[in-house]
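Example 3.2
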Amino acid sequence: MLERHVTNLIQAISRDGSTADLGDLFLRMTADVTTDFMFGESVQLLAHPESFEANWTTAFQDAKLGCEFRARLGQFADFVPQPKFSDAVKKVHAYMDAHVDKALQYRKSLDADHVQQSGPTHADTKKRYVFLHELSKLTDDRQTLRNELLTIFFGGRDTTSALLTNMFFLLARHPRVWKKLRNEVCKLDGMESTVEDLKAMEYLGFCLNEALRLYPVIPGNSRIPTKDTVLPVGGGLDGKSPVFVPAGTLVVYHVYALHRREDLWGPDAAEFRPERWKTEKGAWKYLPFNSGPRKCIGQQFALTEAQYRTVRLLQEFVLIENRDAEPWRESLAATCTSANGAKVAMKTE
């Protein structure tokens, strides 16, 4: 599935030296991949950027920004009119509900078949995996199905595209790193990479880790303890004493700031230096996916997807040239990515 969509991405990138915004292309491709996984059919935004589905993803973006704004307003959110947000939510829900209706019809057809026959003989067992079909076997609650779809779409589209955009923003400004990374990829000799191949690419892992360190996709997070607890440090005048945290207290932590602390990462903490990961272990000072029992369940899938796309682009293009003189500036909503995207020229020779 990934190869088909990566091929569309490669075809969408100009080869005549003109500027391409990889940020926009990555966002469209992750929407294609995620909808293909969820519905068994892709919205095909790379191939048809002006389609109805493109308008729907614009509505999704407006709804996401509206949610972020409402979160900042807190208890005053309901007192501030947001007609654009309300309209976007209606469009998003209507689109998802149409797919939920199809899934419920699919479930009814399964139930009817089970009445007539026993055993796994339904013709659908030979078809490809479709997330929504499998989910509909577990529940027929429309609200639950819609909520799960929205969660998967957001997690599959926005986070991975933000990671790739930030990394290629950095690669375009560090030709030495690009060259070293391409030398590693060239060892595949043009062959399609397997999961084992991706895991064996040490420097590729270093680059992804470093991009996530400098520009974590989720730059801040929070936790609420269900019972009274104590944080081992953070209290007192020197910040080294324990801190009592009563149950129900909101604890907010800033991942972006944590990843740039010189006392943890050294004097070059603000620099893009993938080589640091040759000896760096990260541990609890490195939390792009959080850690512990509540860490992101999609971590490995997101990293594998990002690795595969990066490898294919490095196989296809010899050089990357920066076409944006501006420094990195955040676009912060539910995720954090480069506000300018990743404007580059990709060259085959």
